[in-house]
Amino acid sequence: MEIKEQFTKVEEVSQDLLNIFLDPYKDDCRYLRKAQVQYLDSKQAEFESIKGEFSIPESCYISDTGHFNSVEFNICYNQLFYIMVAYLLQNKLLAVMKDWDLEIYKRYQLSNFLIVKFSSIFRKQINSQHFQGTLSINKSSSRRNLIILKTVCAFYDSNDGWSEGDVTIAIIKNEPNNVG
User: Fold this and answer.
1) Is CATH 3.40.980.10 the classification given to domain 9-178?
2) Residue 30 · residue 56 · CB < 8 Å
3) Could you tell me which residues come within 8 angstroms of residue 5 by beta carbon, excluding any fewer than 6 positions away?
4) How far apart are CA 139 and CA 149, in angstroms?
5) 11-62 per-position pLDDT tens digit
6) Where are the domains of the chain?
7) CA geometry: angle at 150 spanning 113 and 1, to 5°?
8) pLDDT at 177
9) What is the pTM of this model?
């Protein structure tokens, strides 16, 4: 079941951005191959979601199960999330992180981003050799030194394989004079 929504603008995420923000992953665990950002309103640059193409030729932690599983769901979510945030910061589209730039983000990418809620549902097995995923932010908020991003995602393949999830991310903000 592929998502069929009409977007007014679709923009490829650069390979450079993918390389920089997937760098923390070991080579055999880089499942996100390419990504594109989807907009509903090109005039107002209204970000809707990011879509990624994935391939898991061989699991990085277990013998081949023959399908996409919950650990791989989490890894793919993280990779798509990291790229989405990088793209949004690069293009100044994430108001709740307006004081951040790519250098600050890279510095805190692993240490300051925490999954505080994670749920996933698997409706039908997904072929891990080639599948897609989408991710969007439902709600963002900021208070004191914390940013909260509530996200939704789905992974699917061309044979109606489907899984979806809700993930809440807490980001620890450093005050501007403590960012360096």
Assistant:
1) no
2) no
3) 38, 48
4) 6
5) 999 999 999 999 999 999 999 999 999 887 655 556 789 999 999 988 777 7
6) 9-178
7) 110
8) 44
9) 0.89
